[in-house]
Design a protein that fits this description.
alpha/beta, Chemotaxis Receptor Methyltransferase Cher, domain 1, Rossmann fold, seven-stranded mixed sheet, 10 strands, 15% strand, binds S-adenosylmethionine
């Protein structure tokens, strides 16, 4: 690909989705955009690039942006964030929300495994959460993954990644060669198309935001804007959960890592959240 064509895609993707495209990833343009060119009846990528240089339709731009997103996800991905949600976040919320209402946002939810994992976790703990109302909102820039998430149907391969067999048996039913979530879990999650680069206030306030494995694709400036906007939709004692390769350190001070936890961020001014005890150091053998 010519440098000027690479720059066109780099600028377009940065503007529309925040994705930072580095030259070492230029091979992704060929592999992911060639099917888009075919869909738009272009004989090759060069022909589609030519259209993009002119006055492209918003649908073409949308297809290009969506094709370049990485939608990798799985049920209970990395496990620790879900354990901490149950053991650190939920105990705080149950003490501090007399309204017994909790709003959770999965801010780049891909095909829905993350919000559905939270819904199943809440169901598993239903006895302790009697009378509580949970609103889980899953959003993503990619409309095709949002449509898949709404369906709540997964392949054998997808349910084998991270989902305990007991939960598969309890919360899914087999539909030909796929596994469909039962309605009681599906109805706990609402899905919306949403671009993290756009104003967030319209979504309302959230007690907990899962924003995992998406900031890694953004440059420093975009991460800072997204984290600042996210902090503004949190109450004083709200929580943000980032992915294992993401942090706020060196990016913004509107959030800080919560002591003795991993991947949880809170407002530096918050004084009401009890910090869990430090894990005991392993005994050193003589
Ligand atoms: C790697 S997946 C992460 C899914 C899930 N959070 C997880 O950790 O398993 C990243 C998701 O971020 C979405 N995404 C990328 N840029 C976005 C943006 N500007 N706004 C909203 N979602 C975005 C992609 O479409 C993709 O589904």
């Amino acid at each position: 690909m010519r440098i000027s064509d690479f720059d066109l895609y780099k600028d377009l993707l940065k503007e529309k989705s925040g994705l930072t495209l580095t030259p070492d990833k230029s091979y992704l343009l060929d592999s992911r955009l060639t099917p888009v060119a075919r869909k738009w009846n272009c004989p090759n990528l060069e022909a589609m690039t030519h259209i993009l240089r002119g006055m492209p339709s918003s649908d073409l731009v949308k297809d290009v942006v969506e094709a370049m997103t990485t939608n990798e996800t799985s049920f209970f991905r990395d496990l620790k964030p879900f354990d901490q949600f149950r053991d650190v976040i939920l105990p705080h919320m149950t003490k501090s929300r007399p309204s017994k209402k909790l709003r959770i946002w999965c801010a780049a939810c891909s095909t829905g495994q993350e919000p559905y994992s939270l819904a199943m976790l809440l169901k598993e703990n239903a006895a302790k959460l009697s009378g509580w109302q949970f609103e889980i909102i899953g959003t993503d820039i990619d409309t095709s993954v949002i449509e898949q998430a709404k369906k709540g149907e997964y392949s054998q391969f997808e349910v084998q990644r991270g989902l305990p067999i007991q939960m598969l048996m309890k919360y899914f039913e087999q539909k030909a060669d796929r596994w469909a979530l039962k309605q009681d879990i599906k109805s706990m999650v609402q899905y919306k198309h949403f671009n993290l680069l756009t104003p967030m206030a319209m979504l309302g306030k959230f007690d907990v935001v899962f924003c995992r494995n998406v900031l890694i694709y953004f440059d420093r400036e975009t991460k800072e804007t997204v984290l600042k906007n996210m902090s503004a939709v949190l109450p004083e004692d709200g929580f943000v959960i980032l992915g294992g390769a993401e942090t706020v350190l060196g990016i913004t001070d509107v959030l800080k890592p919560m002591d003795n936890t991993r991947g949880i961020y809170i407002k530096p001014t918050c004084t009401t959240i009890a910090i869990p005890a430090a894990p005991k150091a392993a005994a050193v053998k003589a």
